[in-house]
Design goal:
By secondary structure, this protein is mostly helical. It folds into two domains: 154 residues, no CATH class; 71 residues. The protein has ten helices and two strands, in the order αααααββααααα. α1 crosses α5, α5 packs antiparallel against α10 and α8 packs antiparallel against α9. The longest helix has 24 residues. The two termini are 35 Å apart.
């Protein structure tokens, strides 16, 4: 129930990789020590902010507190960061110089990103709240990611277009792979993001419309969405946070 060292190791590893690469490569914008500290601390505690009291046997400060699970939810954490950002902005810039000063935008994006990555371990352990405040809760259990094939075998268009199968999905995947390769070497980075975004929407739509039968009854969609939302998207946010600092 309370923060574990695994969260710090998981999020801290990604942050340390950014830090090492930033120092090793001749980059104009660097992921500096202050960003590293924010990332490790908020990977460790972050959304578990109120659950820390469990470690001190102060359960009365946690149980019944609507903020406990609001902060510990995929939607609640970014909202909480809008206020938390001001505290961290002040802390990070104590004794800073123009070279290592952290902007408000960078602080906010880093807080949100490492907090969302924190949820990855929760999701593969038991599950995660999409949103929670008091009695109102939307909880996504672990099985929703890893057993999606059992929950959603056939979509509404399966009987309408029974010929649509794994073969068509293979062609769609191959098409976006070719497009990704082309824009990666020929276009600007923003075009790479656009192709990835369109590809994700199209493939997810195929899952919703036709079901997991067109993915060979594998857990591809559940695992892919877990990775994209709680690993890939936060990494993009970290990269952008460094660029705008």
């Amino acid at each position: 129930m309370s923060p574990s060292i695994a969260h710090a190791l998981f999020g801290g590893t990604f942050a340390f990789i950014f830090y090492i690469l930033s120092r090793s490569l001749d980059l104009e914008k660097k992921f500096n020590e202050r960003m590293l500290y924010l990332s490790i601390f908020n990977s460790f505690i972050g959304p578990d902010l109120f659950k820390v009291f469990f470690s001190f046997n102060l359960d009365f400060l946690v149980l019944g507190n609507p903020l406990t699970y609001f902060v510990h939810s995929l939607i609640g954490w970014p909202v909480w960061c809008l206020g938390l950002m001001w505290i961290w902005y002040f802390i990070l810039n104590i004794g800073s110089t123009e070279e290592n000063k952290i902007t408000k935008g960078t602080t906010l994006l880093l807080l949100i990103a490492v907090g969302e990555m924190h949820f990855f371990l929760d999701a593969i352990d038991t599950g995660v709240h999409l949103i929670a405040f008091g009695e109102f809760q939307i909880y996504i259990p672990r099985d929703a990611f890893f057993f999606a094939k059992d929950f959603y075998t056939y979509g509404p268009l399966h009987d309408v277009f029974p010929w649509f199968s794994m073969f068509e999905m293979f062609l769609i995947g191959l098409f976006f792979l070719i497009m990704f390769t082309y824009v990666l070497f020929k276009k600007e980075l923003k075009h790479v993001y656009i192709v990835i975004g369109i590809g994700v929407v199209v493939i997810l739509s195929c899952f919703i419309l036709f079901g997991s039968i067109v993915f060979g009854m594998e857990n591809d969609i559940g695992v892919a969405m877990l990775f994209l939302s709680l690993i890939f998207l936060p990494i993009l946010m970290i990269i952008y946070a460094v660029q705008i600092n």
